[in-house]
Amino acid sequence: MKESDVILAPLSQVDEELKYRPAIVLREMPIPYQDILVCGVSTNLRQYVRGFDDIISPTDVDFILSSLHSESLIRLSFLAVIPRRLVRGTIGSISEERHKRLLRRLVVYPL
To answer: What CATH number does the domain located at 5-108 have?
Structure first.
């Protein structure tokens, strides 16, 4: 597992139940923890935060590599730190360009 991978990770839902959902690995946390910072992925495009979240579509060059099934929202507005041992596996990846764009947005988003 590496940064920019699409993984299956336990993410807290609105009802506070944990459910395994697709997520993007944004950063690996420092040793000794080595947990991962992820953002959730959703097909619910209504949750889109303009200028912050990112939509990945079947027409995007990295869509096939992501192994997502339909147009999806990469939700920087839905972050979590996950222990590596809870990740069920890697299903795909996003492009290095998209990964860098997500990190840039996370850092420079206006308050």
So the answer is: 2.30.30.110
